[in-house]
Amino acid sequence: MRKSSKREDEKEDTYTPLLDDTTDNLQSSDKPDCVPIFKQNPFENSWLISKIFFSWVTPLARFGRKNHLKPGHLEPSLKMMDAAKLHDDILVNWDKVPHDHKNAIFKALMMTYKKEFFYAMIINFFQVCIDISVPFMLHAIIKFMQDKSEDARGIGYGIFLIACYLIVDLVAKLLSQQGNFLQGLLGAKAYTGVCSITYNKILRCSSATNKSFAQAEIINFIQVDAGKIFFLAWVLPVVARLPIQLIFSISYLIYFFGLSLLGAAGVAFVLVIINFFIAVIGQKIQKVVLARKDERMRFTTELINNIKIIKLNGWVQYFLDKVNTSRAKEIKVIIWTFFVFAVNVFSMFMLSPLLIVVTFGIFFGAGHTMTLAQGFACLQVLGQLNMPIRWIPQFIGILLQFTVSMRRIQKFLICDEINPAIVRQNDQECVNKGIDILVENSNFTWGGQKEEKKKDPKKEDTKEETKSSSNTSSPRNDINGEKNSSEEDLDSESTMSDSDKDEKAAKVDEGIQIRDLNLKIHRGEFICVIGGVGSGKSSLISALLGDMIYISDQTIREFQGKLFEDVRHEIIERTKNEKDIVRLGGSISYVQQQPWIQNKTIRDNILFGLEMDEERYNQAIELCELANDLEILPGGDLTEIGEKGINLSGGQKARVSLARAVYANADILLMDDPISALDSNVKKSIFENLFCGELRGKTRVLVTHAVEFLDQVDRIIVMEKGRIKYIGTYDEIQHSDEIQHILKTLEKTARKNSELEEDKEENKEDKEDVKPDEKLKKSFMSEKGTNITEDENEEKIVVGWKVYYSFFIKNNSWIFYIFFITLSFAGALAIVFNGIFTGRFINPYEEKYSFWSLIFISLSLAIVASIATTIVTTGISLATIKLTRKLHIDMLEKTANAPVNLYFDKTPSGRILNRYSSDINKLDNGIDKKVGWIISCFSMVIFDIVVAALNTPFVLATLPFIIIAMVILLRYYIKSFREVNRLGSVSHSPMMNLLGETINGATTIRSFQKQNDFVKTNYKVLNVVTNVGFWRESLRSWFAIRIEFVSLFLLGFTSGFMLYYRSKADPILIGVLFNRFIMFNMMLLFSCQLLSDLEGDLVSYDRCLKMLEIPQEREQRKYMPELMDWPSQGQIEFEDYSLKYRPDTEVVLKNLNFTIKPKEKIGIVGRTGAGKSTICLALCRIVEAFEGKIKIDGIDVSTLGIADLRERITIIPQDPTLFEGTLRFNLDPVGTIPDVELLRMARKANLEEFINRDDKGLDQKIEDGGKNLSSGEKQLICILRAILRKNKIVLMDEATANIDIKTEQIIQKLIHEEFEDSTVLTIAHRLNTIINSDRVLVLSRGEVQEFDDPQKLLEDQDSMFYSYANELKKHEEE
């Protein structure tokens, strides 16, 4: 085995930050100020009595009341909840279940957790047995209270009955909380297991195999769909008790009522049918709600992820309107759910009174009688009958929703995977023969195209499925959303004009991106891959990585090359047994064209999980030209890189990505044009010192447009339409027509190319004073780093009076809530009186009212109570959605108008999106119902106490003790629960960030063989989420049991007084009181838990409110009459201008003074980090001035509205940005340009063939980020979009970096024609793009070094510009 594959030996002993830094915001226990509350998890080591009463949770309640909790305080987590173990448990059964089964996941879950489900059902069985005993006990107690005869039993018997009832009630509540806790753990286990296998699936898919699932949809699988498992874990064991309860209730009632029960059975049957249809309708509406939410989140994600380009183009308001329109549609559907819920609430409150009225009405109407004790016992049984009648239809609805969600996840889990056996690393035969890459007669595809006419309409139920079924073009990118394809390869093949090819032959290659690949690369060779835009260069690299689907010639012939979506799975199945198609003689590392950067430090990005070898590390930094950058960055190599490398320039990101591959010390380096974004001198240094120097002896495959270096490589591969057209040495192929054309282009432009350095003195110092050996001795390891991302765990959220004021009182909301509280009290009063009148008509000795009058009054009161409760819950929902609608609009506007440098650079997008998904969803679907039920429940609790006081006034003496106990419990519980709930919210942000990074970087992760490391990181993140959820459920049960003691104390005290004064007590009030007290425990607990849950939801509301306090850009619009035709000339003046990105950073542009004349074409040159791109940001006021000002046509831009300014400036940034939608939308997002003009400009930009390759033309599908296009195609579209704006000022920031020279010449000609009357500022690394400029601006470390005509600067031998040109000339001569 080759020595350089040492990386494989290091694989097991990974560098700690890779595993820990992703959860840095969570692993607070690593910090000195965060000491765990427990040395070991108390649940695993507590005594039985402590587990029964949850006493082991008390230390957390005490600590949380006084302290700001962090996840580290809750460590260590339960061993049985370890994500790795849970993944293995469910994976074993998932593999056993036939995956073609519709409910395979459900079966796997039941097989995995059958014991837990069984234990939960056993607990529910014992609980239902206790519930069955309650009517008998109630009968005995009321009979005793009613018996006032001389031979009645003594008070001791009554005490015994009350004591038995209290003990039974306590045991029932203890069992209930143990069951709830066990079901919560069961849900957490199942959720973690499903999340982990879903995450692992991501690492086994590429865009060749995953054709249906976008990043947002995969995230929804974990954030939304997997959460439905909790509902099933809660409901399924409970539903198991319903048959027992149903059988007992019916048997008991038949015993007393006989045939009179048939009327109640008919009512029950009708109500079950009604509830079933309500559940089905609710499920369908909920499905639409989810689709609307997905659409809104897709648009919101698009806005947040592309905020910089949206701001630069002045499109903020357009995208705001797009999101707000989607939100309005979502709210309309949500309101429908409120009405369905209203019907459900009314049905729920009318169910019991209807059963009572019908049953007793028929019974007494037939002339039968029963005792008061028997009547109240039957009332209790009828109350128990409510649960099965109400729950069975609801369970069906929940099961339907669960099934839909699980099938969505299952569809992803069974989607095709890449075949890892296609690529064989360290092939011994290749090693022995000195071959590092060997591929023979192979074809590769990105998965073919979808056949529109075969769409299944059933698959279009949701927005996601519609989206997945409408992707009509072949994906030409990897899972990272970057170029990974031949791009037009065979689509353009279909446009071939060769007359000897008939229509059938023209379609043979459809869907094949790499065809007839025969490639043998020997050890140590340096290979360059060149070709035009869409020729298949990146697809060749992807094929060598195993990201594409191998397809044999026989399969191509069988399907006649028509690889449509319906046969793609069959093709992959045929190739599952294929192996060793790509044989490699060693290990590989990979560099993407658009660098994949993690939200970690520079050091972590370079080490990428390997052990620190300081000498090798310093050498990688030096060779990748990062030394100067580390000196500039405030934390050196410990500087935290923002999400997607947002605080690095394009060149810096490329070199960090390259340094990662160099440090890996692999045998084979596959590099997809990593040097296109680099300055000429940096590019030359890396090419000579690294590619041709340090890496000599390793096999290097480089995709590049830098054809000036072709004579320095061993062999050249020329790609055309997915085939290797030429392969050979420079001398062998230089006489071909294609190479001659390239050489002529190169010869024409080479004289104009120059290499850019900091200044002449630095250039000399680099060449003479500093020796390579001395440079490499320098250490680039910093001792102290800097972070730009704020720790979300440090955010202290206290739900104070301001939050309550904002939610309940502000904007005149208090008027509605006073009305709702009044109405709720009226409903509660009606319920109490209904109970009394019900007691009256079942009392055979009641003669004050006629029986039917009592029936009518009872039924009327029930209707009043039901209507009142329905109005309260629905009204509060409508009031809340009105509030959240406005809140969402305000949040979105504040977010969109926040400064990039002060907010977006410092805040991960996952954290921002969490506000719009998790937090907004809580406000939409939870907080309104909690408020409504809290008002209703507390109203009933208050009137229950009133009833008790009417019967035994002495009960009022207990109220102070009850209130004190409740206040103490709530102080401990609510504060601790709020803290744990906050941790639950923030713990999901790192999980979402890791998911996004993994989806975008799956190819890089696989190429470095780091799948296991990322899986472990995911386990750590899931463990934190699960542990926080464990403690949240523990706190719930701890509080519930203590509330039970409070309610039992009140019941016991009241019962004692009733026993003492039983001779004077009204037996009807006694029966009503006991019936109400059975509900009292539940209502008190339910209302207190809802109150704590409300606090948790108000944390989400407060987090949303804090979005309204983020820093804002200055005024967006200002009415200024002089702006009607501004700018008319395009003159730009910088006056004493200085800029810094943030108040705590250094000045990056220093005292700039220069003037650009109208219509001038200015070239801006300078080393990476010199400030070239910053000038563009300054002109568009993405970053505001620190000092000085910029004038355009004499107007200080700082006096303008920001949107007014940006609309009048065209910018083409470094990174091409496309949006999901049509090609037309991407060319003209605001829809103001006619199709004729779009097509005319497309022809001039060499995009006609691209448009014609799809029958839809301008309406062809562009995936999110342009994932189905090559980087060159994306950049062409972005350039054309800029040209179509026709502004007077144009900024081009390295716009042609990813385009071959031939296409670049076409674009340069088009720019010259269309921008002839515009002032153009061009930043470029290829000097041929700026050498013909009117003047050149030379920057170094944020300062202007030279600004003059390029020819004059070349004539001045002392100019910095001359030194660059002279350096290039020497390089050419060599």
TrEMBL record:
CDD domains: ABC_6TM_ABCC_D1 (cd18579), ABC_6TM_ABCC_D2 (cd18580), ABCC_MRP_domain1 (cd03250), ABCC_MRP_domain2 (cd03244)
Basic and acidic residues bias: start-end ranges: 449-467, 498-507
Biased composition (Low complexity): 15-26
Domain called ABC transmembrane type-1: residue spans: 120-401, 818-1096
Transmembrane segments: 117-142, 154-172, 229-248, 254-282, 334-367, 814-837, 849-881, 931-950, 956-974, 1039-1061, 1067-1086
Region span, Disordered: 1-27, 448-507, 753-772
Subcellular location: Membrane
Protein name as catalogued: Uncharacterized protein
SUPFAM superfamilies, alphabetized: ABC transporter transmembrane region, P-loop containing nucleoside triphosphate hydrolases
Domain ABC transporter as annotated: residue spans: 496-746, 1132-1366
GO cellular component: membrane
Keyword list, A-Z: ATP-binding, Membrane, Nucleotide-binding, Transmembrane, Transmembrane helix, Transport
Membrane topology term: Multi-pass membrane protein
Organism: Euplotes crassus
